[in-house]
Amino acid sequence: MHADSDVAAETGDTDVVVHADRRRTLGAFGEAAVAAWYRQRGATIVDRNWRVREGELDLVVFQRGRLSFVEVKTRRSTRFGSPVEAITPAKAARLRRLVGLWLEHHPRSRRRAIELVVASVTIDADGRPNIAVVPIDM
């Protein structure tokens, strides 16, 4: 049984499932838009949704001799803050640890310049993504 179905079965609240599915769909849309944005600029997507027990890296991108570890945050509006504001110090620390783990699993990549960024995606009224890339201190 799907995890969201488990929640609905336990609570009897199918709105929980719909809400979670919409969030997941929005996140997938944002990740696809950011991947396309990087490819349009000549980058190569090296890894996507890389998962380990400690968490997930949304995108690993190679461009101009540099590996970018990209956390994608997507919002329908900025009414409750920009997507970048979702990156708390704890989240940034977890992302740094994940970058280290990714590099351990890909030792040939260790000699590359690296950066950690958040790709902030907001959806305009016409459904088009607006993307801004903001560095996170390593």
Structure description:
The structure is a single chain. The chain has a single domain, classed as Trna Endonuclease, Chain: A, domain 1 (3-Layer(aba) Sandwich), CATH 3.40.1350. It has a five-stranded mixed sheet with strand order 1-2-3-4-5, sandwiched between helices. Strand 2 and strand 3 (66-75) form a beta hairpin. It is α+β, with helices and mostly antiparallel strands and 138 residues long. Helix 1 packs antiparallel against helix 2 (14-40). The chain has helices at 3-11, 14-40, 89-105; strands spanning 44-52, 55-63, 66-75, 113-123, 129-136. It is 38% helix and 34% strand. It starts with a helix and ends with a strand. The chain contains three helices and five strands; from the N terminus they run H-H-E-E-E-H-E-E. The model is unreliable at 1-20 (pLDDT under 50).
What percent of residues are in strands? 25-35%
Query: What is the domain total for the residues?
Result: 1
The mean pLDDT is: 85
* CATH fold-level topology: Trna Endonuclease, Chain: A, domain 1
Biggest sheet features? 5 strands, mixed
Look at the structure and give the CATH class: Alpha Beta
Strand order of the largest sheet: 1-2-3-4-5
Number of H/I helices: 3
Structural class: alpha+beta
